[in-house]
Amino acid sequence: MVLSLVKLCAREVVSDHSSSPCWLNCVPRELYRSLLNAAFTHCRPLAVGELVQRWPERILTVGGSRKAGQCTPNRLCVQALLLAVVRGLKNKRSCLQVLDLSGLQCEHERVEDSMGGWSLTVALCSMVIQARAAASRAHKRDGERERKRGLEAEREKDGTVKRDRGTVGCVNYSEESVRGHREEKLGKMECTSNGENSIGHDLVMVPEDESVKGVRRRMEIQKRKTSELNISNDGSGFCKQNWDEVVVVHARADLFINARSWERVRDALSHPGPLRLHCRYLRVEELSAVSIASLLSLLPQEDLHGVDIRYSSLGVSGLAMLLPLFAPFLQLHSLRLHYCNLDLQRTQIGQQGALQEMCKGLGLLKRLNRLCLTALRLPGHLRLLLSSLSQPLEVLELPYLCLTSTDLAYLSCSQHAPFLRELDLSENCLNESSLPSLRRLFGQAESSLYQLSLCGCGLSDAHLDALLPSLSCCRVLRSLRLALNPLSRMGLLSLARTAAGIPSLRLLLYPNPLEEYEPGLPALPSSAQLLDWSLMEEPEGRDLTLRLLDEVLSLRGRTRDLIVTSDFLNYSPDLSVDD
């Protein structure tokens, strides 16, 4: 790759941090972006901090979609960025108002010293809490100065009154008039301290006992009352103010929350401060329905695009309680539920009523176009779930859902079929009775289906022969995954010929043929048996399969643009390891 002159110069400039005082004061704002990119690329955290602390634009975006070969920022650089944002709040040269870190986390790439979603979420919340604490300390210092000014003014006036009392024949003040003057003054001070904008600035208060004499004693009483006020405000000078009054920078990010980070996230979202956290995609793991509901009540409603809930024992009743809480998030278009303990194969009291409420909650999500239900075990209930949606789905993932032939028959005739771009039916048993519905479904989605996953569905050679004509009509299909199906070598070659005939296809994930396994497999093994069974140690069988596949691709001229692989671990999204 040929680097531009600007990139080459930016790399040289950020490489020597000792020269930063020379160029930071004169670099034009148009070059800040190039310098920051160079600092991230070549891991210069000190340069990252200097640039972000003086950022000359309203918006700073770090993350998002990365180009081919572009690595995620180093952990040290991300930490330097967050620290610089906090320091930049006091820098008059900084114009930063929006910090967008959406997609910054490193999930799928195994990059050394990168920062995953869990670590980034904790670091972001620490940044918000740190900024709020610093601003609170500044408010307390301002309040302390105002308090001392008020006490100084009171001491001067007390001295004036004492001198007036000791003056004979000058002005005949009666005792009642002096007391009235002091009560009027103290009454004004009470009004000032109880005003709307008095927090942190007008903390001059009236002593409880007017008979207390001496400035030192009054200062002690005032100090005690001020500390009690701070404790009642939970240590923050912003607690009685609105977010809009105190926010300086809005930070957008994808939040990854589990039981260990829940308290810190709640603390960061609960109280106003100079930094406000906005969530684009929310992923929670191992949290109860009550904790998730509490979290949703703290999130800004205008930014949330997607929710991913995993390994949480919600049950049907818990999910029925949560779904209506998503309705105020008008931008929400993606909902993913993984292993949330929804098992309708076991009859429980009140289960059907809770299921009806859950379907009503789904119907409230007006912009939902992506739905993933993994291992929820809802046999025979697909019509009830999907018919409640107000618009067609574009992405539907239903792995381990125990789908029946009735469910597939509904799906093939539903409003969603012609609009499906991604469909995942992995680990659902597709038998003879399901094949007509599948063929009809592929025919409905032939002009839209982009990705199809049928891993572990028990498809034999006969089943596949019945489906291949319908699959060949999917003219925009780019990814086809069929791993862990009991196919012979001949069935695999038939699949490869059909796949090579689809011009748009770029990935075929095929199962290892039965001939490559050690002896002892059943005639039609399950996906679990295929996953656990050992492959033959001799490479002759695998070499023969690869040679035959290469011949099929060569005849169709697809050796370069079509990836044909059995690497289930690297090409299956179900087994991708997250940070």
UniProtKB/TrEMBL annotation:
<feature type="region of interest" description="Disordered">
    <location>
        <begin position="136"/>
        <end position="160"/>
    </location>
</feature>
<keyword id="KW-0963">Cytoplasm</keyword>
<protein>
    <recommendedName>
        <fullName>Leucine-rich repeat-containing protein 14</fullName>
    </recommendedName>
</protein>
<keyword id="KW-0677">Repeat</keyword>
<feature type="compositionally biased region" description="Basic and acidic residues">
    <location>
        <begin position="141"/>
        <end position="160"/>
    </location>
</feature>
<keyword id="KW-0433">Leucine-rich repeat</keyword>
<dbReference type="GO" id="GO:0005737">
    <property type="term" value="C:cytoplasm"/>
</dbReference>
<dbReference type="InterPro" id="IPR032675">
    <property type="entry name" value="LRR_dom_sf"/>
</dbReference>
<dbReference type="InterPro" id="IPR050694">
    <property type="entry name" value="LRRC14/PRAME"/>
</dbReference>
